[in-house]
Amino acid sequence: xxxxxxxxxxxxxxxxxxNISTRQLVAKYGISYSxxxxxxxxxxxxxxxxxxxxxxxxKVIERAAERExxxxxxxxxxxxxxxxxxxxxxxxxxxxxxxxxxxxxxTITGALKDIKYVLGIRNETEKAIQEERLEALRREKKREEQxxxxxxxxIFKGMTDEEAQIAGESWSG
Length: 173
What we know:
The protein has helices at 4-16, 22-29, 33-42, 45-96, 102-119, 124-148, 161-172. It is mainly alpha-helical. Helix 4 (45-96) runs antiparallel to helix 5.
């Protein structure tokens, strides 16, 4: 039987390494599978591993969101600069009294459409479609969360309360 410090090392490895199995730990540390499973259940290693993974997942999502926000900000800055440039060119032509050629007007219009696209400016129909998609995703996430929260209760017929409790405890771990 491993010493307390050895058990702590095994537990830490199990919780922090999502790719290692209990069988691999048994082989690595030369301990019995049943002893490992009992310790794992008693100290709730699986729950601790899930909590650790959830924390890691949240950090990954947060970092990805930060990178995406940085990219979006850079895109907005570039689109804003392009818009200022187009506006300045138009204002120059107006101030000098120059006429704008049809080809220049088409180029400017195209540039404005591109800026609109880059900035994500949408018409009402596009906005409505996006809102519907978001709402569908929210409903799907809610359904998944509700499925995760289901608890199963076993009813043991023909047993005394004490027998059912013992059977339930042996079933859970």
